[in-house]
Amino acid sequence: MHILVVDDECEIVSLIKDMLEDNHVVTAVCDPVEAMKLVKSTRYDMVISDYNMPSISGDILCEESRKLNPKCFNVIITGYEEYARILDDKIDRVLTKPFSWPKFLTMIKEVASCM
Q1: What angle do the packed helices 58-68 and 32-41 form, to 10 degrees?
Q2: DSSP assignment, residue 99?
Q3: Superfamily the domain 2-107 falls into
Q4: Mean pLDDT across 104-108
Q5: Mean per-residue pLDDT, 69-78
Q6: How is the beta sheet containing 2-6 ordered, strand by strand?
Q7: Which region, left, alpha or beta, applies to residue 87 given φ > 0 means left and ψ of -120 to 50 means alpha?
């Protein structure tokens, strides 16, 4: 599965990339503007994005990925529980920080098995 990971906190991007890259092709970026360029030029099976980032929010990034690839599975990670309720209708999965890494990896495996 080809996965794009986006967060303005580079440590989180590196952690997620390290966890996934043994079984998936992972592109990881800390700049949402760069991520938007990648979404427009590359077909991803999954986009995992922080919600609250400078310049472009994660939901806008995921909406664009969905326009270009309707089968793209979009995941938003947020520290704000109120955003989780708002985004739930537009995004395939919303994870509220802190989240369980084992549950996160199980979700990735479930999505990969459906692709």
Answers
A1: 10
A2: -
A3: Response regulator (3.40.50.2300)
A4: 90
A5: 91
A6: 25-29, 2-6, 46-50, 73-78, 93-96
A7: alpha
> At residue 60, what is the residue type?
I
Place of tokens 């580079």: 10
Give the distance from CA 95 to its chain's centroid.
10
pLDDT confidence band for 9 (50 / 70 / 90): very high
Residue matched to tokens 């326009």: 67
Q: Are 55 and 33 in contact (CB under 8 A)?
A: yes
Contacts 24+ apart (CB under 8 A), 52-58: 52/78, 52/79, 52/80, 52/83, 53/6, 53/7, 53/8, 54/8, 56/32, 57/32, 58/6, 58/32
What are the domain boundaries of the chain? 2-107
Treating both helix axes as pointing N-terminal to C-terminal, what angle do 101-114 and 10-20 enclose, rounded to 10 degrees?
60
* Structure-block tokens of residue 112: 């990969």
pTM of full prediction above 0.85 = yes
Q: Which two tokens stand for residue 38?
A: 């990648």
How far out from the chain centre does Cα 18 lie? 15
